[in-house]
Amino acid sequence: MKKATACLLIVMLVFTFAPAYLPQTVTAPIMTLTWLTHWTEPSEVKYWGPVLAKYLAETGVEIDRQTVEFDALYETIMIRHAGNEDPDLIHIHTMWIPELANWKANILSVPPDPVQADVGENWTEATADASTWKGFTWGYPTEFNSWALVYNEMLFNNTIAGLEDPDKTFLTNVRNKLNNDENITYTELTNAAILLTKGTPPAITQTGFAPFIEGMPEEQRFQFLSLLWSNGGEYVDLTVPEATFDGTEGYEVMQLYHDLGFVHQVYDPMNMPDYWWGAWSGETVAMMILPTWMSYVRDAMGDNFTHLEIAPIPVGPSGSNSKSVTFSWSNVVTKRAENLGRDDEAWDFLEWLNTPRPQGYIDDTGGGGVGLIPRANDTSIMGDFLAYDSIVPSRITDRENARTWDKDNPGCVGDSIAEDFWFAEFMKFGSPPYGRSDKTFLNAEEAQYEIGLMFETITLTNVTSVQARVNLAADNIDAILPMAGDVNMDGPVDIYDAVLMVRDIDAVPGAPNWNIGRCDINDNGVVGLADVILLSTNYGKTGGY
User: Distance of CA 38 to CAs 106, 179, 408, Å?
Assistant: First the structure.
């Protein structure tokens, strides 16, 4: 099928089948849909068993849930697409949407109008925004994540008790500012971390501040971005395109982390604390910048979990307001499912997952089962699962109604997500005026890898020049950013792109020649003069894919 015909078919499907996305109430002939996710833990498998059995009993449609580990998911998606073996549904990081939805890859099916309207009305603005690209919201957002400064107030109090003025007054003031959600400066963060540190490398017994560096590059980028935005900086300018974090704002962030380890020795770069478990259970780390999903520290600390408090991201010398990266995942339907005539059933399943249900809509209390699903009234199954996995749901009613789970005690109803101090605080710092969604772009995954390398190098090795290492990361990202105006994605901005621009001028979402916003270079939802200017400005230039 020619690309033009395929693109026309996308739009025709949106309008033709828009009214059809309603739950089926009668058993239909058996159809099997494949759903690729990264939920591989035994407890997660245990949850989805009764859920998918319920859906099969209600609709006659079987869901074959296939799983891979998170760090293998993106590669698995791409390998399966290359072999024309795309699953019908995928749970994806919203960072990947441009890579999967662009007209050239064409992996994702455009969600029907009712789905996009539903998400716009019933999901948090941050997660809906993070799932939107080229004028479309791609699928149903799932988890809600943000970042904040987590600190152990007990360690603050114990340290304060052993100090004399002026240190006693200083650390008390910092603690009080954190308790009141006031912004602290880099100087306050650094000096507080020094006072909270016990010992020197290689024998630090209490870490004043620990960088989060042992996760995926995503954690390093989001930690960096939260600090960068809180210091008045920006990540990339996609209209040029170029990385913009190599200015004063980005340098100050990385110089802070380098100095905390190598100048002030508030953490030991060669022997980082075990903040996956031991540092929390033993209460030997005073401050860290963490994401919402690190709530597993609750299990590590037990009753001492109440010693933790949550505060805004520190504001740097070039900034004025604290900001927190918010990001999400999304359940999407593939183009292959659409081409095989299974997209109606795929969207039906996602709509079913995201519809608020009464408590115990699925009763799995017997025989060592999970218990009642959902745990609370007016909670969707998707939202209930996220709460079960200690993650904040992004559907508004789920955030209001979902309850935490005690997986060892299925009969325990749990606390409201909205009232739990950890989740409530992270939801606050992921909302205005703090929260800011992570805008994504083609090659975002590769750019993130460069940020991770920069972050680890500066944090863990005594580089001779922090600025030079920041510049190197920016230069490497510049080399892989596609040039704004390269409509046909072949590298250069040339006459072929100009011809496509002429054809698509004044196209709007839903028009037959929209083609997933092929010529909407500035992502504002219409092909117009601003896009022509960008193409003209970059004519003759070459970008990277």
Answer: 22, 36, 22
Domain ranges of the chain: 3-145+327-436, 147-325+439-480
Same topology between domain 3-145+327-436 and domain 147-325+439-480:
yes
d(CA 145, CA 93): 12
Yes or no: domain 3-145+327-436 corresponds to CATH 3.40.50.740: no
For 490, the enclosing helix (H) or strand (E) is: none
In CATH terms, the superfamily for domain 147-325+439-480 is: Periplasmic binding protein-like II (3.40.190.10)
- Does 333 have pLDDT greater than 50? yes
pLDDT at residue 509, rounded to an integer: 78
- 3-class state of residue 149 by DSSP: strand
Distance CA 440, CA 160 (A): 43
Average pLDDT, the chain: 91
- pLDDT tens digits, one per residue of 242-274: 999 999 999 999 999 999 999 999 999 999 999
**What does the H/E/C string look like for 114-147?**
HHHHHHHHHECHHHHHHCEECCEECCEEEEEECE
Indicate the SS3 state at residue 168.
helix
| pLDDT band per the 50, 70, 90 thresholds, residue 5 | very low
